[in-house]
Amino acid sequence: MLRIQNLSKTYPSGTQALKNVSFDVKDGEFMVVIGLSGSGKSTLLRCINRLIEPTEGKIFWDDLDITAAPPADLRRIRRKIGMVFQQFNLVKRSTVLTNVLSGRLGYVNPWTSLLGIWSQEDRQHAIQALERVGIADKAGSRADALSGGQQQRVGIARALMQDPKLILADEPVASLDPVLSHSILQYLEQLNKEGITVICSLHFLDLVHRYATRVVALKDGVKVFEGAAREIDRAKFKEIYGEEAQEVRAASL
Amino acid sequence: MPIARIARNTLLTALVIAAFVVSYRVTEADFPRLFRDLAKGKDLLTAFLTPDVFTRDVETRTVSIVFPIPCGSAPTESLLPSEGPRLVPSVLCAAPLETFTLQGFDLQPNSEVVIRWRLPDGRTMTAIRTETDANGYFTYEVQARPIQSTVDGVASRLEVDTLTPVGGLKPSQALKDVMDNMFVTIFMALLSTTLATVIAAPLSFLAASNITRKGCLGTAVYYLFRSFFNLMRSYDPLVMATVFGFWLSFGPFPGFLALTVVTIASLGKLFSEAVENIDAGPVEALNATGAPPLHVVRYGVVPQIVPDFISYIIYHWDINVRISTIIGFVGGGGIGYYLNLSINDFKWNQAGTAIWAIVIVVWAMDFLSSEIRKRLT
């Protein structure tokens, strides 16, 4: 269980990205975070693994206080939290296999891995992860030779190498062709069904309805909604996204 | 205020004109001299354009006659041969300062001829160089000098060497020396670039804001190395070479050290900027996996900067070949030093060889480095 308590984040520039946000994520949930760009979704996700240091508030994972963990402990926590990014964040010039293997860096012998030496076991593990997302044949290609959808699948395979209990997905389909959205989210859904908790930020209401077990909505850094996906109707949607918002249907594509 | 504006503009114009007048004065600019002294420049240019590259072995044959000055001080040549290579003076002896004609017959045709006096004490005085025609004939006006007078009954002799090139072309000594010195320069540049890379590459990470500038200590380290690079860069390699030259006496080693120091600063700055320009995404992703910091750099940063680094290294090798040529002028060894020596000895053809070698090598390095850099992406 992940418990977020009174989380606030104020950037040095003075921007208040999160204001006193609290909610719980139970193990095995597919929690979707929605809200406009700049509403604090990315900041929220990055506070959970402390890529961004929260200004106030606490985050507990089971009984572990993530917000108070010293650097070495934090790295041990992070390796159990996979992360998938909107821009995939692959090393473009490295091979797909190296990108996937690098997900294992929190576990392996630091000296051999620094020299680029990987055990046979890790390599097999990486190929298996690539097989799970259906692109094992691309293992030797350079990451930037792949299409966007394929790159995101490499991103998921990299997260899988961490043997994660939790996956944070920061708008994983926002940079992709809408038709590819389902293919990526189905992989996350599959992992969720195998017991990995997923916290995912999304834009399309259709996708929210289809995948979320629960939804948190942010508006200007404030939590404005928490509940089941089906509770978000058109009116609620307008409330979260503002009167100007027009829903774009992705599912129909 | 139009009047104020006109006054201001007039003042500015006057200042600009004054600045140009002063510049003209201090540079002692005298453009017409370019044309007045054209002859001098042309000779120099001709010498440079005819580099000393090939040579042929020369066979020297000498014929000589005894030539008493003044007449009667010693016996004259009793019988001049009438065939074969021979010298025929218009008179058999002469008074000091008397002028006579010296002719040579049946010598090596189309050859360079050196006419000289062998004095009674055995020393020689080279009088003049000329050439034989197709029949091996030459003629030359010679003046008898008092210094060539007979001493103790021994008369001076007139000797004529004919120099005939034999065998094929072979590289001249100048070409060999230029090539030796060129190797010194190229490898001096290579070694200094390599050493500078080894030192600058790790330091550059410390001067990259996205890697180092975190917390108080990090910020201090960042500014320390950044200002170190900037400070070192502001020293001209030539100044640095002079300093090292006085310290370690002149030669390739101080030149190499000067190049290395300047290259560390220059590469350090370029490297750190390459590190700062990387895509931050992969670094974020690797941090999120719980990878240790050094591994984040190894897997997230290094693959992104390799092409830039290689490109900068090759570019600097190219630059360093040029700079080490200049450094040679202040005693740094290599081709620049050789060129400086040649110019000081007025050996213009030899200097021409060196200049051509520099042009060819610099062009080749330039071409090579741009070709390699083109292939890196």
Protein architecture, described:
The complex is a heterodimer of chains A (253) and B (377). Chain A is built from nine helices and ten strands. Chain A is of the alpha/beta class and 253 residues long. Chain A has a domain at 1-78 and 205-246: P-loop containing nucleotide triphosphate hydrolases (Rossmann fold), CATH 3.40.50. In chain A, the strands form two sheets. Chain A has a six-stranded mixed sheet, with helices on both faces. The model of chain A has no long low-confidence stretch (mean pLDDT 90). The model of chain B has no long low-confidence stretch (mean pLDDT 87). Chain B folds into three domains: 2-49, no CATH class; 54-168, Immunoglobulin-like (Sandwich); 173-375, MetI-like (MetI-like fold, Orthogonal Bundle), CATH 1.10.3720.10. With 377 residues, chain B is α+β, with helices and mostly antiparallel strands. Chain B has helices at residues 2-26, 32-36, 38-49, 173-206, 209-212, 215-233, 237-248, 252-276, 280-288, 293-332, 334-344, 348-375, and strands at 54-66, 86-89, 99-105, 112-118, 124-131, 138-143, 157-171. In chain B, the strands form two sheets. Chain B has a four-stranded antiparallel sheet. At the A-B interface, α2, β6, α4 and α6 of A face α9 and α10 of B.
